[in-house]
Queue: 2 jobs
Job 1
Amino acid sequence: MGLDSVEPMVKIRGLRKSYGGREILRGIDLDVPTGSVMCIIGPSGSGKSTLLSCINHLERIDGGRLWVGGELVGYREHKAKLYELPERQVARMRQKVGMVFQQFNLFPHMTALQNIIEAPIQVKRVPPDQARRRAMELLERVGLASRHAMFPAQLSGGEQQRVAIARALAMDPQLMLFDEPTSALDPELVGEVLDVMKDLARSGMTMVVVTHELAFAREVGDALTFMDAGLVVERGDPRSVLSAPKEQRTQNFLSRVL
Amino acid sequence: MSGAGRIGEEAPARQIVVPLRHPWTWLASAVVVLIAGLVLYSVATNPAFEWPVVAQYMLDQQILIGLSRTLELTLVAMAIGLVIGTLLAMMRLSSNRLLSTLSWLYIWFFRSVPVLVQLIFWYNFGALYATISIGIPFGPTLYSASTNAMITPLFAALAGLGLAQAAYTAEVIRGGIASVPHGQARAARALGMRPMLIFRRIVFPQAMRVIIPPVGNEVISMVKNTSLVSVIALAELLYTAQLIYARTYETIPLLIVASLWYLIIVSLLSAGQHVLERKYRQR
């Protein structure tokens, strides 16, 4: 796939990020074409979750450029300098990008339904009736319509994560970010969450998925990126990267996890 | 067959289980009840307590006015404490070092100096600045008044109680906000919510669960702390009682009247706090 064909949904060039003097991301280039599923794998500490947080500017960047839907994320460029945008403007951009977290992060003081309608009503000013109807549709889609009045603490981990996906979808995002969505789940609950994600991928959603589920990456991913020590080491078609990795570091990682 | 006992050993149909007896506990209880009874008997029969006088003053007009003044002071001082305390907590948590240091200094100062001292200090503020003026610094004065005219005992009482309370409340609120996991604000930001909205809808309601019980305790302390105001001659419940016994020499019965009223208010507030705590308990 050529880098400069159609404008990709996510375009990253030379992205750098440090924490307290330690460089976590050391110049990342990445394209995620619209409608495709990009899976990112790599050892812990390789910077994949940080990369994901930079895409919707939950983390500041220290260098490079990052575009979502053709729009520069978090900054305004003026005379070759980047000026960070006020939170208000960044918030507007984030409405287009849904995010699902490893720890679900549902709001514990709200029911499943209230979790889903909160942002549409408060941020997008959707009329409550309409928001509620849409939320019920989404709960139906993730198979939890009957659980709408439950509080997060009354739901299993898999159910919480499915509600979290529905909550992100309620904002009608153009892009979905998944940060190790099944890593905190008991093994028998992983399947139900992956099923919802597969369904979402089939519907044509653009997705960036940081994951340890290699089978999912092989089956659903359009592209696979292997990261190590803050760099993209290898990328390509998931089947070929997973079965015949070119780089030594990819081979080492895969031999450890497979 | 299951349960205790060796396999094959049949348990009798009706087993009698004798729990361990605690004879000394029973004896100690008896002694305590006896002592309590003696104290009650003595309180009820000792004429020096002057119970008829207590009954006579319990619903006395003057006492009731003092009582309402106590409630008023509690309410307003707590409100001042909550508003300034919330601001201080937000400053303390701010990433701006100047704001957070200022808040730390305020909390340090107002928690270190006894409230009684602060009250007397505010009452004597006129000795420090004879007049209070509003105007442009080094420019014309727009308004000026004598400090003694502005700082009434009521003003001094509210300033003393409210500003000190703000320092305590700030720490409670800060603890509550800090107790909300970081992921909550992250999730809300990812949904496109703005900082004030996140605070109002996501962080604060969750912080409330942690904040409510200690603030309830602070309200209860405040009811009692208002009695300190008697030193600056503000006629709240205790000072009203003192005014009356200075005239009639019925010191003990009037102190009992005041104590009974404090007991009643604190009991009611404790019950209210219990209800609130149940409401905010996480599901």
Note: Strands of chain B lie at 131-135, 141-146.
Job 2
Amino acid sequence: MLQATINGIVLGGAYALVAIGFVVLFNNTKFFNFAHGDFLTMGAFLGYSFVVSLKLAWPLAIVLIVVAMTVMGLLTELLTRQVVSRRALLIGAIATLGLGLVIRAVIQMTYGPVDLYLPPLVDRPAVRVFGAALSYQQLIIVGFVLVVLLVLYWIYQHTFVGLVLKATAEDPTAAQIMGVPTALVVRGSFVGSAVLAGVAGFLVAPSFSVSLLLGYLIVFKAVVGSFVGGFGSLVGAVVGAVIVGVAEVNAAYLVDADYRNIAVYGLLILLFIVRPTGLFGTKLVEKV
Amino acid sequence: MAETTLTAEPGTAPRDPRRSLVATAIHRPETPPVVVGLLLLLLVGLVSGDGRWLGTTALLLALAVGTVGLNFAQGAAGIFTLGTAAFLGVGGYSTAILTTRYEWSPLLAALAGAALAAVVASVFALLTLRVSEIYLAIATLALVQIFGGMILAYDGLTGGVDGIPAVPAPALFGFAADELLELAILNVVVMTVLAVGAAVVLAAKPGRSFRAVREDHLAAAGCGVRVNRTFNLSFVLAAVYGSIAGSLFAHTIAFVDPTAFNLDISVIAIAMLVIGGSGSVVGAILGTVLLQVAAEVVTEFKGFSNLLFGLVILFGALVSPRGVVGGAHDLVDRVQVLSRFFRRPARVAVARTPRQRDAVARDPGQSLNGAGPVGVLEATDVWKAFGGVKALQGVDVRVEPGQIHALIGPNGSGKSTLINMLSGLYRVDRGDIRLGGRSIGGLRTADRTTTGLARTYQNGRLFKELSVFENVQVPGDHRRPTPGAVGSRWPGVTGRAWAELVIDFVGITHLESTKARLLGFGNQRRVELARAIALDPWFLLLDEPAAGLSGMEQEALVEKLRALSGLGMGILLVEHSMNVVMDVADTVTVLDFGKVIGCGAPAAIRADRKVIDAYLGVS
């Protein structure tokens, strides 16, 4: 039970990375990026190439993934600029679904149709905490999540950039009139979310397998987490993602692996019924 | 009724009633799907010699039913749903399980599946449709995942990952469609019948309600549309169509397994709808044909097939966001707007149109002044706070039938808030709202329209993608009292004639087929007014109807307001233009900081010291 909860928290931490990118992008663009999961998959496959094929050190691999995902984020922004500026949610969703298909097809053409295995980054025995085992991979994930959260917290609470981000999310038109370079904010959001997804993919890949549907698997849970927490809230996204991780692992541990998905998604629907805005969400009042 | 009216084209001729049979047929909603159905039948005939393409065609026909269904929820009502896969799955598995394990007849099995889908969708809609659009997308995603999880968890019944093979051919009254060609023909027939049904529903009252809630659900509620019920209906229709599509799918490939009903199919259905043309039945079918054929063509490029398919979806959405059919419509709109530049310049003339004379003749002339059947609209001691802001602090207003009651005051004094409380958008914190002695404070917006209230909005909330005529038809559908009932001022005028009458009254008959978003500002305001009048209300709440209008347009508006009050309507008029207020108002109430600081006849108000200090100023 304790072991399952700790595993769940780590898994939730990985979900949180993905959820944050998704939410930041949505807040600043009202854009639902359905290719987000495929960015994650891409990170995992690139990581495999760098670490297994090219035998690079894993910190270097992360740097290269950040570079690659930056390019990917910029490219996506360029492709969907028209759609984003018109706030055409549905069109954006469809276009990115198409983009996701393209990414998966390219991956499949490059790596072939078989699932790959990425070994843990550090090959050392697990650390024992209160009788539960924590692998180095899990420690790296937790460490990375904490760093990202602290940096984001600092940016949002203590820097001018954070103010600009909040202003753009609140009202892009007003922000633009006040001199905020909203185009830059949008571009930055695309890059940031792609980078977070790619790195998250690389970090969680050893716990799963490097497969085409890795992204799907994780992004849906991450998105569910962000909704559990209250969509749009970053704190909510992190808390919600961890709740989902814990619930998922415990459902598999206590009941049956078959009920994993039913538990997670059932939880979400239950939450919508009880509290439609999520734990940290605020109710929107429409002005007439 | 109106003695004079401002029209752009004097004496606008009514539509020619003797339109040719062909022209009438073209405009019927069932014609396009029938034509498409016949073309697809032709396609089946053309490919009947080729097993592979015949199979593709049969399959796309099954899927088209699902896309047509998705169009109810997503295209018409604007619900972003990823739930298609779950409902396809309910149909597919119902058919597979009931026909193979329990030997039910295919028809009964399909109907059972559709019924189950309807139940699941109703419950789901009741529980979750009150969440906003993006939450709903995720809730429907969860539905698909739970469905997939259950298929695996109950593998004794569903066969788990192995699926259920050997689903028998569909048979009806002893005739079995066991040849692929027969199957394809059956699918064409079922698809066409269901598409015609969809087109008819979408062209009628339910379809208008769907589109109204999609465009602006607050304004729709103000037009009497029950918003939740409308969303739910569109969702249930989508589920039933999806389930039938799933049954056809199971028969067509004679096999079901979980991978057929995963999220990909939901996504592809959305892509089909968007690429074909969201909102249109023909668009839904066309999109299914295009994408399914594209998918089949690209399989020839082994290895590249997904890449090409992805590129088709990506650039299809980016290049033509409104789809094939939407693009065609936009072209027509553009030509329409352009052609106006080449028309003879419209003369602004004072004229009475023939149809308006009819209206005057139909008006029984019973003035409801004073002793009207409904009594008065009154707000007593109404309080409302938003957080720390006390917007209204014990306001009393009393609107008499047949009277124009102006509500004036500085910005932020609570005028719009009061209208929002009267119309049911906000609940009162304290106090009561009564209409004819009956308390209506607890009723929701749509239910208040039934008691005889209608309103306009300060910033205009037209259904932008709907034509002027449809904008007026939506409230006309929810008109009160029921046409023909005692108390109706126009007992004989119903349906289209009612919408025509109201549009004519505000003087924009020549624009009735134009989309609201293409209208100029003044004409948009006229549509707002027409939409409120089309509810045939006892009381009309107007939020700054003259703002932004030219002097001549204001004069025309004043005429209309007089005419309406002459018919016994009570009007509450929020207005900043003192010319208009002093011109038409019988009574004026002045608000300042959420309190009434003056109430009385216009002349008395103009002389009131407190009102001059707070609002009017000295000239």
Note: Residues 2-210 of chain A form one domain.
